[in-house]
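Chapter summary example.
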Amino acid sequence: MTRLPDQPPHSRFSTVRKNVARKKPNAVWKFLRTLRRLWHSLQSIWVPKEQLPKFWIERKYLRTIGQWPDLESPKTLNEKIQWLKLYYHNPLLTTLADKYTVRDYVAGKIGEEHLIPLIGVYENVAGIDFEQLPEKFILKATHGCGWNMICKDKQSFDIAGAKRKLEKWLNTNFYDGRFEWQYKDMKPRIICETLLERPDGKALHDYKILFLNGKLCFIQVVTGRGERSKFGLKPANVFFSTDWELLPIRYPFRPHVEDIADIPKPKQLDQMIGLAYRLCPDVPVVRVDLYLHEEKVYFGELTFTPRSGLFVWEPEEYNRTLGDMLVLPIRQGYS
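The structure predicted for these 335 residues follows.
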């Protein structure tokens, strides 16, 4: 594993100062944001079509991070992910980012037993027979990220609302607005999987293992999905080394280690790391997501542009430290 340097303790107040604009917007702020987007849209009229991805990536980065990205000589991890979105177009990414087609890859690398049981795959909403689905299930759009719908009780599940949302997903290209190239030509589909939960009905811990140029950097654990805290329904994100040493990285305005119970080291940690290495393709950046259910490891997904390269790092030094670890491939150009 590549070691990350220790960082001094950081203050909650520094996060608040640096992210005032990330608070819930009021009506005036929303109006100004709308004007800004309209202005950017008008500007884009004079931008050549082949330059539009770079145009929008730069402005999205500015709105989120607060500064222009250096795309000619990127140094931080965030900047390098923007560069990869523009200049690294490996067809393998499309296959492996697709939540349906990646299943064959996973079965070949680590075995079908690590796949969450598949209930159905659908190319349109009309093909989903909700009456035939089990009492609990999860629906996922295969051609995007974060498009998941959980049903814990079919009797109270809003089927009509679910159909409207699924229809919207199927008619949306996840590439638009984010310019994450792997999603550009991905076939839209919906899959239904068995819902895996803890015995108390809470969401499983999500173990996200980040690799840069094939080297494991850290393990991010997402816990508390769907659980309300003083931060609302936002889950906690805690970062560990492979030795399960806590790393001082945190998400702004989300629960952290001091806000939740300790996360114990999984007994299957070595197995999880071994499986993640076997799943790691020869690409610059990949995050391997795994779950533990009843002491068995299950595959979640492969992500090649984590958080679209718009992670607000706290402390900020990690953004540059991880950027230094990542060696970019040869530039391929827009498409």
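To summarize the output: The first helix runs from residue 12 to 18.
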